[in-house]
């Protein structure tokens, strides 16, 4: 069974068109303003990652044709959510211990309680759009975004859901910046995944996924799967074959858990630009990393 | 479909192995104690179910990882797996990841690398595992991970999967609870006098196989795991969502409610969870009377590991024919009239098929069905 991307959204400072990911990063973009995108209602007390995630969710569901004037247009129990984020609620957690040290727990806001749990973004998205299928938060380091796509695809294969909304999001704030030692993307991307056979608006088809102990092994297995990929989306220039284009997203800041999902969005941008050759996405594999994860994405054929 | 559980492992405040924990539950032992890792002057509540493993006074980083490693080690050994787990997917459900280490980094400057927020790097160092996955799914996390482990086997992506859950208590979560609820003196699930939950620490792990190995023991059979989301409220449970998850678990397992001998309830001791869970259980089991128990009065609410911890208890009930009582239950809530909550002393009763509930913040529900030898 093949899995297709049937909806996509991108939300970065200064960029929302996936085709823009094929160009160098925008360095002077304004921070995303969630209230301007989806209205102020319901955003109060939500952390930055959740606000950004809600915006991406709405845009991706709309792009997939799943959102009507009165909400989701297919049964909500058949739609699941996977959020990939490593840094999502780092700000809430750090702020809480700081407050407790200074003022004791009386200084805490009860409204922060849900934000102390790392699945806050996924659950808020489910609540806002009535998505009652499997609801998963993947916090898996550098490979997290592509891992989230893998688990969403598995959930479709196993029949637990008919559509999966996958979101990769990381927020910028003093805590996340200090933790990763530099600027954070403060945005991300979202995908809607469907079974290919049921996809009436295919943007790209997911090919094989690989996971390997090292970057070289992961790259090798991707190259074996698609010897003539047109582009490689990866932070590592040394694994890209000479004939292939390299798409480098590192200029957007530390993308962490958002990276793999942004890579998939870049592949959709590749297809949207009229290219028909496959794309390889590759994350992880840097020194000290657990593993590398890779994914092949193919633009839809002329017949689809 | 049904998959053998070939290895188990766990640590909690009341025991360092699944057997010790089960024995402790049956003996009425409690892991509740005074705060060990937090500054007592900062909190109204003064008790937690902590694992007493700290070397000195004050707190230290990396404890969730340490508990996880021990539970996985036990489970792998029990299943006869090699020390090298490079070919085995390891799925970890957790509520709070290594956020306690993050807290100590931010507040006290104790060195911490962002990559250690999840458990992958530690599992790679200790077991050579590379296909590791950390899922932060609140208090149903380990049963959610179990559902994905099931899918890996069913879809032919793996022959062996290790599923685990682990958590320590973070100061941020404990602090938020301290801010919003008066501290309960004890956890009394399903009692009229229940006043809330108290967090605990622990880790649990199982080895799941596509096929049992001839000549090796099977600890039980996984018959189904259902997962869904309420999509209603960030912290409060929802009747419709919970009911759907329980019915889905029965449907996947091909089980009638009358086939189920035991339900290990989520039973947090909060007024709203226990009321909702009781009402849903009464409704789903209208034509049946399984024995009902829950473990959190003695282990505390162990968050991400709680579901799998309950599942290991269910396996012990199946294996021994003994069901530990709900500790602290004196005067059951009126909605439990007609339900068979185990009280006061362990109940001796054969158990063939058991249901295990796990519900979490964000309305993430997971329900598993396990069986004894086929």
From TrEMBL, chain A:
Enumerate the spans annotated as Beta-ketoacyl synthase-like N-terminal domain. Answer: 40-177
Molecular function via GO: 3-oxoacyl-[acyl-carrier-protein] synthase activity
- Kindly give the Pfam families that the UniProt entry links to this protein: ketoacyl-synt
Q: Does the keyword Transferase apply?
A: yes
Q: Which GO terms describe its biological process?
A: fatty acid biosynthetic process
The record lists the membrane-crossing segments as none
Keywords from the named record: Transferase
Top-rank lineage group of the source organism: Bacteria
Q: What is this protein called?
A: Beta-ketoacyl synthase-like N-terminal domain-containing protein
UniProtKB/TrEMBL annotation, chain B:
Q: Which GO terms describe its molecular function?
A: 3-oxoacyl-[acyl-carrier-protein] synthase activity
Pfam families assigned to the protein according to its UniProt record, in alphabetical order: ketoacyl-synt, Ketoacyl-synt_C
- This protein's superkingdom? Bacteria
Q: Which GO terms describe its cellular component?
A: cytosol
GO BP annotations, alphabetical order? fatty acid biosynthetic process
- UniProt-listed Gene3D superfamilies: 3.40.47.10
Keyword Cell membrane among record annotations: no
Any keyword Transferase? Answer: yes
InterPro entries (alphabetical): Beta-ketoacyl_synthase, Ketoacyl_synth_C, Ketoacyl_synth_N, PKS_Beta-ketoAc_synthase_dom, Thiolase-like
- SMART domains per the record? PKS_KS
Every Ketosynthase family 3 (KS3) domain range: 1-372
Query: Which keywords does this Swiss-Prot/TrEMBL entry list?
Result: Transferase
Name the PROSITE patterns for this protein. Answer: KS3_2 (PS52004)
Q: Which family does it belong to?
A: Belongs to the thiolase-like superfamily. Beta-ketoacyl-ACP synthases family.
The protein's name is: 3-oxoacyl-[acyl-carrier-protein] synthase 2
């Amino acid at each position: 069974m093949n899995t297709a991307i049937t909806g996509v959204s991108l939300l970065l400072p200064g960029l929302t068109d996936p085709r823009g990911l094929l160009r160098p990063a925008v360095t002077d973009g304004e921070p995303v303003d969630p209230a301007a995108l989806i209205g102020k209602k319901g955003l109060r007390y939500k952390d930055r990652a959740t606000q950004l995630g809600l915006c991406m969710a709405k845009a991706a569901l709309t792009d997939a044709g799943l959102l009507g004037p009165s909400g989701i247009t297919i049964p909500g129990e058949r739609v699941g959510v996977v959020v990939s984020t490593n840094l999502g609620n780092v700000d809430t957690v750090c702020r809480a211990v700081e407050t407790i040290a200074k003022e004791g727990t009386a200084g805490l806001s009860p409204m922060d309680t849900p934000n102390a749990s790392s699945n806050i973004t996924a659950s808020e998205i489910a609540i806002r759009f009535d998505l009652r299928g499997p609801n998963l938060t993947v916090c898996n380091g550098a490979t997290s975004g592509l891992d989230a796509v893998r688990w969403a695809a598995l959930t479709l294969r196993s029949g637990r859901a008919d559509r999966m909304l996958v979101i990769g999001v990381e927020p910028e704030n003093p805590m996340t910046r200090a933790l990763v030692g530099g600027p954070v993307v403060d945005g991300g991307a979202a995908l809607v995944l469907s079974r290919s056979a049921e996809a009436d608006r295919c943007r790209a088809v997911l090919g094989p996924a690989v996971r390997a102990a090292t970057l070289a092994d992961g790259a090798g297995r991707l190259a074996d799967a698609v010897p003539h990929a047109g582009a490689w989306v990866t932070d590592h220039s040394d694994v890209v074959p000479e004939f292939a284009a390299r798409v480098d997203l590192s200029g957007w800041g530390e993308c962490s858990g958002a990276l793999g999902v942004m890579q998939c969005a870049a592949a959709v941008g590749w297809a949207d630009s009229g290219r028909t050759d496959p794309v390889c996405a590759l994350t992880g594999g840097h020194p000290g990393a657990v593993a590398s994860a890779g994914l092949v994405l193919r633009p839809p054929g002329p017949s689809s | 479909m049904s998959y053998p559980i070939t290895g188990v492992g766990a640590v909690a405040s009341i025991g360092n192995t699944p057997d010790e924990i089960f024995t402790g539950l049956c003996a009425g032992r409690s892991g509740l104690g005074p705060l060990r890792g937090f500054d007592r002057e900062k909190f109204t509540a003064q008790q937690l179910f902590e694992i007493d493993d700290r070397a000195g006074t004050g707190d230290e980083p990396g404890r969730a990882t340490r508990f996880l490693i021990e539970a996985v080690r036990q489970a792998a050994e029990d299943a006869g797996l090699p020390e090298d787990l490079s070919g085995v997917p390891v799925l970890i459900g957790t509520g709070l990841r290594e956020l306690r280490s993050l807290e100590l980094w931010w507040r006290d400057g104790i060195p911490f690398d962002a990559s250690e927020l999840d458990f992958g790097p530690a599992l790679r160092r200790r077991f050579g595992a590379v296909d590791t996955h950390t899922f932060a799914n609140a208090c149903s996390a380990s049963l959610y991970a179990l559902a994905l482990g099931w899918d890996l086997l069913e879809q032919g992506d793996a022959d062996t999967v290790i599923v685990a859950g682990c958590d320590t208590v973070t100061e941020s979560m404990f602090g938020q609870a301290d801010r919003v609820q008066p501290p309960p003196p004890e956890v009394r699930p399903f009692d009229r006098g229940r006043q809330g939950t108290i967090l605990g620490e622990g880790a649990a792990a199982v080895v799941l196989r596509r096929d049992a190995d001839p000549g090796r023991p099977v600890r039980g059979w996984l018959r189904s795991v259902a997962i869904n989301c309420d999509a209603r409220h960030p912290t409060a449970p929802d009747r419709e969502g919970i009911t759907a998850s329980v019915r889905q678990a029965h449907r996947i397992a091909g089980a009638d409610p009358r086939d189920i001998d035991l339900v290990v309830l989520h039973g947090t001791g909060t007024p709203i969870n226990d009321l909702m869970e009781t009402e849903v259980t009464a409704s789903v089991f209208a034509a049946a009377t399984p024995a009902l128990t829950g473990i959190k009065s003695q282990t505390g609410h162990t968050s991400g590991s709680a579901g799998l911890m309950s599942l290991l208890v269910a396996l012990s009930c199946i294996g021994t024919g003994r069901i530990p009582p709900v500790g602290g239950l004196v005067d059951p809530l009126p909605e439990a009239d007609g339900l068979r909550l185990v009280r006061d002393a362990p109940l001796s009763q054969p158990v063939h098929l058991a249901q295990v509930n796990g519900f979490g913040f964000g309305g993430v529900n997971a329900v598993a069905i396990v069986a004894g030898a086929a």
